[in-house]
Amino acid sequence: MPEHSNPELPPLPYDYDALEPSISEQVVTWHHDTHHQSYVDSIQGAEETLAENREAGDFGGSAAAIRDVTHNGCGHYLHTLFWENMSPNGGGEPSGELADAIEEDFGSYEGWRGEFEAAADDASGWALLAYDPVADQLRNLVVDQHDQGALWGSHPVVALDVWEHSYYYDYGPDRGSFVENFFDVIDWDDVAEQYQKATSQ
């Protein structure tokens, strides 16, 4: 049986209070240490179930475990990107090759941001900026849960979590203010690095 490394919760790339006032220390602590950890734990549990089922030759519970891997794996992946996409030194606008791509694919930075904010307002999960390698362009995506509305083969470069657990403690029902303040901490250097990785594959 092949050996696979179990997913682990990655440490934050900054202190828990580093994103204040955009995101409070309390929310980052809950969101990272409890909520994100739960996705990692669930993947591990589902993988164990699948391995046991293969060993026993009994696949009665395998479909549900596969769904758990998909759902929680997407949650783990997108949360990891979400943390990496932010920095206490973030904000501003993109530059260089990324800025050129946004202007080419959306007409302007303002055109991209307006569309991204519309995605964030409508999503029941995530707003993503993703590179579509088939069309060779950037696209905004509205993703419900963690995996409904994904685009096969695309590579997310910006992930904004708009589940209520990411903002309700700080903003109440005012999701729009949370989305607006996300742009004060977005780390365009990281996004540019994610874009470079996506386009070089």
Describe the structure.
With 201 residues, the chain is mainly alpha-helical. Helix content is 52%, strand content 11%. The protein has 2 domains: 25-84, Fe,Mn superoxide dismutase (SOD) domain (Helix Hairpins); 96-199, 3-Layer(bab) Sandwich (minor pseudopilin epsh fold). The chain is built from 7 helices and 3 strands. Helix 1 packs antiparallel against helix 2 (62-84) and helix 3 packs across helix 4. The model has no long low-confidence stretch (mean pLDDT 95).
Q: Could you name the key traits of this structure?
A:
mainly alpha; 7 helices; globular; minor pseudopilin epsh fold; Helix Hairpins; 201 residues; 3-stranded antiparallel sheet
Total number of domains: 2
Count of alpha/pi helices: 7
Strand arrangement in the largest pleated sheet: 2-1-3
Q: What is the overall shape?
A: globular
Uncertain spans: none
CATH fold name of the largest domain: minor pseudopilin epsh fold
| SSE pattern | HHHHEEEHHH
* Main beta sheet strand tally, sense and closure: 3 strands, antiparallel
Helix percentage: 40-55%
User: What is the name of the CATH class of the largest domain?
Assistant: Alpha Beta
**Structural class designation:** mainly alpha
* Distance N to C terminus: 29 Å
What's the total count of β strands?
Answer: 3
CATH superfamily of the largest domain: Iron/manganese superoxide dismutase, C-terminal domain
How large is the share of residues in beta strands?
5-15%
Radius of gyration: 18 Å
Average pLDDT score? 95
